[in-house]
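Troubleshooting entry. Yesterday's outputs looked truncated, so today I'm pasting the complete records for two proteins to confirm everything comes through intact. If either block looks cut off, that's the bug. Protein one:
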Amino acid sequence: MNRRTTNGHANGQANSHLPNDKPALNFDIVIVGAGISGINAAYRIQQTLPSHSYTILEARHDLGGTWSLFKYPGIRSDSDLHTFGFAFNPWKKPNPIATGASIVEYMNETAEKFRIDKRFEFQHNVLAANWSSEEQEWRLEVENDGRKKVYYAKFVILGTGYYDYEEPLKAQIPGLDNFAGTTIHPQFWPEDLDYKGKRIIIIGSGATAVTILPALIDGGAGQATMLQRSPTYIVNLPQKKPGELRLYERVLPQRMALQITRLLFIWVPYLFFLFCRQFPTAARSVIRKGAQHDLPPNFPLDPHFVPHYEPWDQRLCFCPDSDFFKCFGSGRAHIVTRKIKQVVKSGIELDSGERLEADIIVTATGLNLRFGGNIALSVDKKKVNVADHHLWRASMLTDVPNLTLVIGYVNASWTLGSDCTARLFCRLIKFLEKNNYTSARPRIGEEEKKDPRSVFQLKSTYVNKGAGNAPTTGWKDPWLPREHYFFDNWSANWADLRKGMEFERVADKI
């Protein structure tokens, strides 16, 4: 395409037609977000579209996304790194569940290895993005150290995750302001917090609470209590130790062995997911027996580990080497399954009349869903509300040209889905250029809008509360939600790009 663009990375050229002669930066592709999705997309661009210029804009000071933002004790992945890691740079360590620090280290190593680190522009916060049908390009308003900058791009990839980095989900806890101690949301954990010897209540039952409880006990908390309104399914995931090798790892070259390991970690969890969906009663029994086996002797299973919903109605929680179950053997870790009556000055009163005393309350009650970050999106200066749009192949918003929204899985590793999105979008760009199109805009018919579905097929509280901020999926291809990797992987490589898509060819932009 003949378009005004620079071949540089972080440097662009001044553009005289901008208002007030402000300099603009021009790229074929702008990636927003230097997390795992952004790095993955960058690699796919370099591999598939080597002649295209691109940059990665990151609002924070460092790469890593969630893994550099969250600092709460024990922060770790809730998916295995063999599939959460990059297919093009496999996770080589034996442990499938990794700490936040080791994930950031791995991401830095990957970015450096493939020279993606040369494309990062940190502390570049994208405030607004407007698509111009006349110009057939995106105009992005960016703030950098208090200065305003303008970027132009033919394509935009939003690797901004699915939650609000600035504002957590507000916990609806009666009387929380009455508490005289310290109240913390895990998303903004103070790194200098001294909790040794303190009495701590963790409100919540999801992956964050399951991670924090054993970490606090190991870190010297006096007493730590996980207070949950309803239980969660929690499953042990054994960690391999250095030097432990499977038979195929002993006889095959490392590269081949890593590919087999990755395939195993794709297939086995998916088969277990299908087992849970098809045989929920049997799955409940298996999960409960596992918990009973790993808990201290005579520790009550009911009501603390007997959820009232079916497995995978909400996301399963995984704990490495049963650390969550084992921490109750310390005598300092506790679990309480009751509703909160109110928070008082010294702790929490339960609906049973019991009072839990505390020095610190941790509100691990979920994330505030936000797709596309806090960027003010618009098309021809008409505001785009993400929640009003359907997703084409779980990747692009209806009526929004040349923009992809990276969304992964909730029943598998996020990266599996984000990689499908990146490969699909790169294939779409090649298709556009081969056919001399300048833009692709998803369009959905009235019949296809019937029976809308949630982007995340879960019944978790934070998902239900955040539904008003999420795009919608449909009941038939190409509007289906992400359901399993095998279909999405096929779709990324072979699906009909014309289905549900409207193309535009503007002569003077070709």
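Protein two, checking that the full record survives here as well:
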Amino acid sequence: MRVSGVAYPPRLSQRCSADIDISGEQIKLCCDHQMVSQTSLEQLTLSDSVGNLPVRVSFPDGWVFVPDQNKDIDCLLQKKGRKSLRIRKVESNLWLIFVSIVFCIAMLFAGYRYGIPWFSHYAARMLPDGVPVFVGEKILDQLDEQFETSHIPVQQQQAIRKRVALFQQQLPPMPFPVQIEFRGSDIANAFALPGGKIVLLDPLVELAQSDQQLDGVILHEMGHIYHRHMMTRLVESSLTAVVVASLTGDTSGVVHQMIGAGVFVMNTGLSRDMERQADQFAKQAMLKIYHTSEPMAAMFELLQQQQMRHTPDWLSSHPNFSERIESMRQP
């Protein structure tokens, strides 16, 4: 089999019309009808075929042959284990490239939207108990830079803790013992941390007009603990951060990622689905303990009145108060 093209002598830029004769395992190079080089297929070197760029065939003595068309040396490419003409056509097919890009984007989106949350849900339950406790303590240490010492009377704090201890005896077993922490702040809020801690801010305690109203909020946070929402979100955020860090080459410890993600989540809130799930846990607990969920609806109304400005529903991680109030009052 003969293939036409051009050849370049060793260490020279001049070229000549040439052809190679492929006979079994022997390759002969002829330049201007004179044989200038000969070698075996094993000693022959072929450059990678990229797009429509010509393939360069290099001989051991320095001669280089470039065929007129890459398809003419397709048999050499296949013998040397390189990409065949068919594969090169597939790689240069713009439609297939477009479909591949769309497929990759769809897979990335599906992994982020469904794969990571699914994995995080189960991973949060597989972690040793010491990890959530440690992470929760470290998150609280960082958040304490924003908070002040609580001014709630010690007797009132003790009474709240006693009620929570009784709740734990009446409700499904918690993955961690619930501990109530009090902190001073200028906002009415409460949040659960990994490891079982619930932080109540003074304005929230002072806003509640009855023990039942405050208990509704506490039970809501216990719902987050029961479903391990915080740890699930932290694993999800940390996993995403680790993947991005790995791609950029900036890797660090997963536990440190969790602590940083925990502070972020505390400032941005959990997902709406998690908030609704915690609301339902609290509602069922209120019905079991107090035989009514009306105090929770009343507390939501008080919190709604406390909002200094309206936040659009699509910007809030919580379901809007109207939806939550209606949910509490449904039979």
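Both blocks look complete. Sanity check on protein two: Residues 94-126 form the longest helix (33 residues).
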